[in-house]
Design goal:
The chain is an alpha/beta fold. The chain folds into three domains: 46 residues, Transferase, Pyrimidine Nucleoside Phosphorylase, Chain C (Transferase, Pyrimidine Nucleoside Phosphorylase, Chain A, domain 3), CATH 1.20.970; 250 residues, 3-Layer(aba) Sandwich (Pyrimidine Nucleoside Phosphorylase, Chain A, domain 2); 90 residues, Pyrimidine nucleoside phosphorylase-like, C-terminal domain (Aldehyde Oxidoreductase, domain 3), CATH 3.90.1170. The protein contains 17 helices and 13 strands. The longest helix is centred in the middle third of the chain and has 18 residues. The chain binds uracil (URA).
Length: 434
């Protein structure tokens, strides 16, 4: 077999065998296949796509390219949750302790910010002292002892994805359903959970801009899960406006803590409750109706918040963050409002632009490995359907001396489209795929 043959076969729209894909992917991981041939192969997939069987094989090859984490010694069914990436998406910080508060173990590996979207690991590192890198033994022992652990992906988790993703990022081959689904699911399979709840985002702040494409991605991932014997549910959810009230690392941790205290944005909490209830259902403990009842009870009685406190304590974070998040978290005192230049109703919010504005403030990276500023971000005051007066603030920017403030302010202002006509509010959940 030579790379030329495999590239040509896919370029011409033919189905590849598992051996052919393994030859390309593992050859690339080992450095035997150069970037230019892999880039051509990815572009062939971009245009010709993969069928369900090819996707399942590609996912498995990528998952097995590195460590396959074994969580079986935890002794209970492990249900994982994954978001395809959005702006203001701090759901893991709320959903994980909610589910763990029912005695269902959470053993979660999360990612860092990707493109204009935020990452759970960066957010957790806003908490002074919080360690996101544990040995596998420490990780499992925390799950057994506290019922919850959230860490960064180990260095050798799906290395094929790491290398291929970096190449896709620079060759305009990220946004293809087969490649995204294999990328996400390879990391999920390697992470060792038994079942998955996927939050597939649709809209201007997501990788999938339309609900139609997000549904296709959701179906592809559910089918990959099924092909590997893992129960998988996907919720296609709205990312046509930032999720919740805050965007930015410390600010999102603050919002997560407030949510666990019962002071929540209704739509954000609706999503957290739905995702949590599906996780509980997949754990096999109870049905979704009973799960929702108990999850709500654990918000009211403080048990979910206590689980968050357990997580912070177990991973070396400053436990006072739970009682006094505004004092413990680094949140910039420098703020400025972005005001509306007209009266009307919010028609749309370009959510990717809000994500980019938060990067301009310093909350995300413009280069690999760059330091981020945990103290900056955006408070989103107006959402789709809200009424606004001329001169009324649309958003508050939290900035620091390193922020590109002018550019960020312009991005936020131009992200808003305001109409004279009344606008309907957006639903949170578009579709559920099982
Ligand atoms: N997230 C991933 O992990 N991979 C992709 O390809 C896109 C989003």
């Amino acid at each position: 077999m030579i790379p030329y043959e495999v590239i040509k076969k896919k370029r011409d729209g033919n189905k590849l065998t598992k051996e052919e894909m393994e030859f390309m992917v593992m050859g690339y991981v080992k450095g035997e296949i150069p970037d230019y041939q892999m880039a051509a192969f990815l572009m062939a997939i971009f245009f010709q796509h993969l069928d369900d069987e090819e996707r399942a094989s590609l996912t498995e090859i990528m998952a097995r390219s590195g460590d396959m984490i074994d969580l079986s010694d935890i002794g209970e069914k492990i249900v994982d949750k994954h978001s395809s990436g959005g702006v203001g998406d701090k759901t893991t910080l709320v959903v994980a302790p909610m589910v763990a508060s029912l005695g269902i173990p959470i053993a979660k590996m999360s990612g860092r910010a990707l493109g204009h979207t935020g990452g759970t690991i960066d957010k957790l590192e806003s908490i002074p002292g919080f360690k996101t890198s544990l040995t596998l033994e420490e990780f499992k022992s925390n799950v057994k002892r506290y019922g919850i652990a959230i860490v960064g992906q180990t260095a050798n988790l799906a290395p094929a994805d790491k290398k291929m993703y970096a190449l896709r990022d620079t060759t305009a081959t990220v946004d293809e359903i087969s490649l995204i689904s294999a990328s996400i699911m390879s990391k999920k399979l390697a992470g060792g959970a038994d079942a998955f709840v996927l939050d597939v985002k649709a809209g201007s702040g997501a990788f999938m801009k339309t609900v139609e494409d997000a549904v296709k991605l959701a179906k592809a991932m559910v089918s990959i899960g099924k092909a590997h014997g893992k129960e998988t549910v996907a919720l296609v959810t709205n990312m046509d406006e930032p999720l919740g009230r805050f965007v930015g690392n410390s600010l999102e941790v603050l919002e997560a803590i407030e949510t666990l205290k019962g002071n929540y944005n209704e739509k954000f909490f609706e999503l957290c409750l739905e995702l949590s209830s599906y996780m509980v259902e997949l754990s096999g403990r109870m049905d979704r109706k009973e799960a929702k009842r108990q999850l709500l009870e654990n918000i009211k009685n403080g048990k979910a918040l206590q689980k968050f406190a357990d997580l912070v304590k177990a991973q070396g974070g400053d436990e006072r963050v739970v009682e006094n998040p505004r004092e413990v978290l680094p949140i910039s005192a420098e703020t400025i409002e972005v005001k509306s230049k007209k009266k009307g109703f919010i028609k749309s919010v370009n959510t990717e632009d809000i994500g980019v504005a938060s990067i301009l403030l310093g909350a995300g990276r413009t280069k690999k490995g760059e330091n981020i500023d945990h103290s900056v971000g955006i408070e989103v005051l107006k959402k789709v359907g809200d009424e606004v007066e001329n001169g009324e603030p649309l958003a508050i920017l939290y900035y620091s001396e390193n922020s590109k403030l002018e550019e960020a302010m312009e991005k936020v202002a131009s992200a808003y489209e305001i109409s004279d006509e009344k606008v309907m509010k957006m639903p949170m959940i578009h579709e559920v795929i099982r």
